[in-house]
Design a protein that fits this description.
Bound molecules: S-adenosyl-L-homocysteine
CATH superfamily of one domain: Vaccinia Virus protein VP39
Mean pLDDT: 96
Number of strands: 16
Radius of gyration: 21 Å
Largest sheet: 8 strands, mixed
Low-confidence stretches: none
CATH architecture of one domain: 3-Layer(aba) Sandwich
Strand content: 15-25%
Order of helices and strands: HEHHHHEHHEHEEEEEEHEEEEEHEHHHE
Shape: globular
């Protein structure tokens, strides 16, 4: 049993079963033993691979998108470019390189990275060492400065903790993490929660017994949405998940590219849950923003010109390099087993903004 499991068990022994969100927050973000706090999990030798790590094309095209947003905003002299959960800093590095084709845009940028992991913040510092733009780090969106902003976030929301509710005879019960026969187990809280049903979107009311509902604290999304509503700008969220709110347990643990039990060896596997894009869109609409999408990642990248970009990169390259580029293109933009269909892109924009590219289909 690892140190974090020991700590979680004693928490439960002392105060009873804990919410799934608390378990997830500890497994990912415990200051000493949390998954992201202790390691760089990306790449072939790590636990999983994200789109910016597949190919430079991903970050470059997002850079082009940001430049288009900046243009639609009226080309402000100063803009905060914010990334939530920047991982190794690869996306930002590729974005800033691509931004060189629009020098006035690049010159307007002040970069803000919102990152809780000291290990990954260090990797970001190394990646952006020679970027020649001002870069600042934040532990949360609460400390972002005022001013117009463009926000990007790839596979960030899926790492934010979720809570789970299960429908039983008497109503909705919280699913918690408790202890049984010396093991961490999921168990329903015996007391039903009041007033859950009336807060649900119409398609989720009157659910059959056994239905499982997930919800997520979207504070970082609300905070950037409020800033965009006040100061102008846009945000781009890319993640895997469903377009409309629905039922089902999507809590998933991945270790060394394989799915494992989420309650085993906490802090040693990546824990995520699908993003409910309807919940995300509703949070933004409540702050007075407009939404674009969600569209499949493949359609988004094609609309931004990923095919032409791949052709360009292949020019004058040997066969092996060309086929690596083709494989990356398929992985990013083609449907299953690629990321093109499962991953979705949602933009939140200030109301007056001319629609930026990528959302026509
Ligand atoms: N965007 C990167 C990394 C995705 S992994 C990529 O596409 O490769 C999730 C990232 O979010 C990591 O950098 C992790 O440390 C960070 N993170 C997780 N929870 C966070 C939180 N609550 N606040 C800020 N960053 C967080």
């Amino acid at each position: 049993m690892n140190a974090l499991e020991r700590e979680i068990r004693s928490l439960i022994e002392n105060a009873g079963p804990i919410p799934v969100s608390r378990y997830m927050a500890l497994a990912l973000g415990h200051p000493r033993h949390g998954y992201y706090m202790t390691r760089d999990p990306f790449g072939a030798s790590g636990d999983f691979v994200t789109a910016p790590e597949v190919s430079q094309m991903f970050g470059e095209l997002i850079g082009i998108w940001c430049a288009e947003v900046w243009h639609a905003m009226g080309e402000p002299a100063r803009v905060h470019l914010v990334e939530l959960g920047p991982g190794r800093g690869t996306l930002m590095n590729d974005l800033l390189r691509a931004a060189k084709v629009v020098p006035a845009f690049r010159a307007s940028l002040e970069v803000h990275l919102v990152e809780t992991s000291p290990v990954l913040a260090e990797a970001q510092r190394r990646a952006l060492n020679e970027a020649s733009v001002p870069v600042r780090w934040h532990n949360s969106t609460a400390t972002l400065p005022d001013g117009a902003l463009i926000v990007v976030a790839n596979e960030f929301i899926d790492a934010l903790p979720i809570d789970q509710l299960v429908r039983a005879e008497a109503g909705w019960h919280e699913r918690k993490v408790g202890l049984k026969d010396g093991q961490l187990v999921f168990a329903l809280d015996p007391t039903p929660l009041p007033r859950i049903e009336e807060g649900l979107p119409a398609q989720l009311r009157g659910a059959p017994t056994g239905s499982l509902l997930e919800s997520r604290d979207l504070t970082p999304v609300r905070e950037v949405a409020q800033r965009i509503a006040t100061h102008g700008g846009a945000a781009l969220f890319i993640d895997y998940g469903h377009v409309r709110s629905g039922f089902g347990d999507t809590l998933q643990a991945v270790r060394e590219h394989k799915v494992t039990d989420p309650l085993r060896d906490p802090g040693e596997a990546d824990l995520t849950a699908h993003v409910d894009f309807e919940q995300l869109a509703v949070a933004a609409l409540r702050e007075g923003l407009h939404t674009l999408g969600p569209v499949p990642q493949g359609a988004f990248l094609r609309a931004l010109g990923i095919d032409a970009r791949a052709e360009r990169l292949k020019r004058n390259q040997d066969e092996a390099t060309a086929s690596t580029i083709d494989a990356a293109l398929a992985r990013l933009a083609a449907p299953s087993p690629g990321m093109g269909e499962l991953f979705k892109v949602l933009a939140l924009v200030q109301p007056a903004l001319t629609a930026p590219p990528g959302f026509d289909s």
